[in-house]
Amino acid sequence: MAAANVGSVATITGNPQNMFIGTASGISYASFAAHLAPLAVLGLGLVWAVTVLLYRREFAHVRLSPPATDGATAHPYLLAKGLIATAAMLAMLLLGVTPALAALLAASALLITRRLKPDRVFREVDYSLLVFFASLFVVTDAVRHTALMPVLESAAAPVIAGTGAGLVATAAVLSNLVSNVPAVLLFAPLVERAAAPDLVWITIAMATTFAGNLTLLGSVANLIVAETARRGGVELRFGEYLRAGVPITLATLTLGTLWLTSWR
């Protein structure tokens, strides 16, 4: 799950908060990737190094077996259709189509099929996680309409102007309090008044994404992996996750801060 979080920083479509940032900021898909895709590659190297260092016994002399494929059915036509839809979506993004529209067009094309019933796709949706995620947006919007929001804005304004370690730390802490996507929504009114909004947005994208590795509650991806592992008989405990999550988060946030400093 750490690799999923770190890798998702590379593009606007990598995670939900990046998609919101891309829509709100108007930063192009190519420009966003130019800033953060190399950082994602470097960050994945850090994830691998920390994981192997902490769990080197599990990586020593172990041959991974391929998963069982009993009963699996190959669908070459659907595979080709999925690849074409993905390529078309990437082309639309590079041409400046908004991420939401490009994603909806590609998804609609995939759902129009006579070979696979749509209800089989919908059964894979984890509705409990969707309710949890929607609830975070409700809480975030409630905060924005209370007397607490002006206090938060006045306290965060100097941090936003700095676009450095202070902004990274604030975004990281807030991401683990309310999750990363609601944290980005709280930042939105402040970034619009910043002197260099594009760099601020990209810094927030990096910080909120990498901060998702700090705790199990840091990102929805963590919850999905933990729930999937539990169904497979693996209990991922909060304390055990922190053992790897803390060093990975600190290392990647430090790397990200140094990387984006060079773009000023």
Give a nutshell description of this structure:
By secondary structure, this protein is mostly helical. The chain has 14 helices and no strands. The protein has helices at residues 2-7, 16-25, 29-54, 56-59, 76-94, 99-111, 118-122, 127-144, 148-162, 165-178, 180-191, 197-210, 220-231, 238-261.
SSE arrangement:
Layout: H1 2-7, H2 16-25, H3 29-54, H4 56-59, H5 76-94, H6 99-111, H7 118-122, H8 127-144, H9 148-162, H10 165-178, H11 180-191, H12 197-210, H13 220-231, H14 238-261
Helix pairs in contact: 2-11, 2-12, 3-14, 5-6, 8-11, 9-10, 9-11, 10-11, 10-12, 11-12, 12-14
Structure write-up:
There is one protein chain. Helix content is 73%, strand content 0%. The chain has helices at 2-7, 16-25, 29-54, 56-59, 76-94, 99-111, 118-122, 127-144, 148-162, 165-178, 180-191, 197-210, 220-231, 238-261. The protein starts with a helix and ends with a helix. The model has no long low-confidence stretch (mean pLDDT 82).
Report the strand count.
Answer: 0
Mean pLDDT: 82
Structural class: mainly alpha
Task: Give the CA-CA distance, first to last residue.
Answer: 31 Å
SS element count, helices: 14
The main β sheet shows up as: none
Estimate the global geometry from the Cα principal axes: globular
Content of β-strand:
under 5%
